[in-house]
Amino acid sequence: MQDFLQQTLSGEAPQRQSGDTPYLRWQWLDHGIFQLDPIDEPLQALVLSAGIHGNETAPVEILNGIIGALLRGEMALRHRVLAILGNPAALRAGKRYLRYDVNRLFGGRWQQIEDCDEARRARRLEQAIESFWLQGCEREQPRWHLDLHTAIRGSWHTRFGVLPLNPQPWPDAFIHWLTAAGLEALVFHTMPSGTFTHLSCATFNAASCTLELGKALLFGANDLTQFAAVQQALAALLSGEPLPATQQTPRRYRVVQQITRLSERFELYIDAETHNFAAFPQGALLAEDGETRYVVQQTREYVLFPNPAVALGLRAGLMLAEESAQTEALLR
User: Fold this and answer.
1) Which residue has the higher pLDDT, 56 or 196?
2) What integer best gives the mean pLDDT of the chain?
């Protein structure tokens, strides 16, 4: 099979749709959906996805490099892997999405919009991961889903992870891997959402995380050296080798409020140049939507993903509190 990314961008099915190497068997399932199974008994099941937003190219290049190394036999494989490039049409166009944000359509939310390519793609991705998880259900193996993204704007933390709502404790091995991957911060959701990782966690009991790696740039313009720890941690995970030594413990944040664009009257009072994780003091007015006002409620809150241009009813930003600060407040 030719290069995974180039095959996906071509829009054509490969002439050869399955094969093997000394370490694995591979199968092309659909455009941007590719399965790899180790020759030996797998240790766990792993979904690796990127390109859910078509302008977020660094994660796509990272995932493509890993898949290429596996197919060339340059590294062993110890786990079942489903590799996904989420929105091929948007990747070809170099746009975040064409009509609808795919990462707001999971959990059946695609049924609430008109029939279009991105609704059908969300449904196809749901089918693909359901089939993949159920294939190995008799083995009771750990399930992980790592969804690789980049942020629209700059961030005070260049590499961070966003974990979906999960009523269960996160596996220690999963948090250890995120730390070894060089993430500077972990953000814990407190509400359900339509994201790919929430679907995997809520429906299939997978430990899942959205990895935010730098800022959205064109193909070829990414400095992948700043994500070397992520690439090394992925290679170690897939091959069963020891993880790289951790350099620092990520700071932990929890979502304390969501800013939602409810109507055309919505006004976001956060400058377009404001970085993710910028701090706002208690009482600061963040946004207004008619009579609805969004105000910083805690002593200090940090903004994440502020975006006034989202569709009505969608998230226009999150406000975070650092976990250590929350704990101290509860003790006072």
Assistant:
1) 196
2) 90
Q: Which residue's entry shows tokens 């829009």? A: 11
Q: Are 50 and 34 in contact (CB under 8 A)?
A: no
pTM: 0.92
Tokens 């800022």 map to which residue? 215
Assigned token pair, 289: 């939507």
Is 323 assigned a catalytic role?
Answer: no
- Asked if 64 contacts 5 with a C-beta cutoff of 8 angstroms, the reply is yes
- 27 Cβ partners below 8 Å, 6+ apart? 17, 18, 34, 35, 36
* Higher-pLDDT residue of 221, 276: 276
Give the Cα-Cα-Cα angle 247, 63, 200 (nearest 5 degrees). 85
Query: Catalytic: which of 56, 118, 126, 212?
Result: 212
pLDDT at 216: 66
Q: What length does the chain have?
A: 332
E strand residue ranges, 166-226: 185-188, 207-215
Read off the tokens for 75.
């590294």
Q: Side chain identity at 267, as an amino acid letter?
A: E
Cβ count within 10 A of residue 35: 20
Helix, strand, coil shares of the chain as percentages rounded to 5?
A: 30, 30, 40
Among 243, 180, 245, smallest CA distance to 209 is for: 180
Region label for 331, one of left (φ > 0), alpha (ψ between -120 and 50) or beta (otherwise): alpha
Q: DSSP for 114-142?
A: -S-HHHHHHHHHHHHHHHHHHHTGGGT--
Q: Report CA 155 to chain centroid distance, whole Å.
A: 16
pLDDT of residue 332 exceeding 60 = no
C-alpha 321/C-alpha 254 separation (Å) is 6
